[in-house]
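Students often ask why we bother encoding 3D structure as a string. The short answer is that it lets us treat folding as translation between two languages. Here is a chain of 122 residues written in the first language.
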Amino acid sequence: MKTARSFVTAWVTVPGRPLAVKRSRLSVAAGLTACAQISGPLESMDRWLGVVESGKDWQVVFKTQSRLLFNLEALVIANHPCDTPQFLVLPIVVGSKKYLDWLGKCAGTPPKSTTRRRSKTH
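And here it is in the second language, the structure alphabet:
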């Protein structure tokens, strides 16, 4: 195990799988995240302008370094269809040394290719 002071996860929801895939690809291609994991659909309930609403969303969890958060948030907000997109950040407190070394190496460095399939590390 390794202390992970500089690593975080950013949680975002979007109203559709194609949007989740697009944001994930944009963030990884820009080198802002080491990876993005997509799950859904999720049933969401919220209060918007005083009215309780529900709908289907997709969740994206980005894994990155703290120093990249402002740029990641700007990318997510600039490409998001909602007026008030969810962008929540949680620290990664501890993780396996091998995984955190990989995360530190990949987040902040744009990939050489977007088509090559990687080995399963996460």
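Translate back mentally: DSSP finds three helices and six strands in the chain. Keep this in mind for the problem set.
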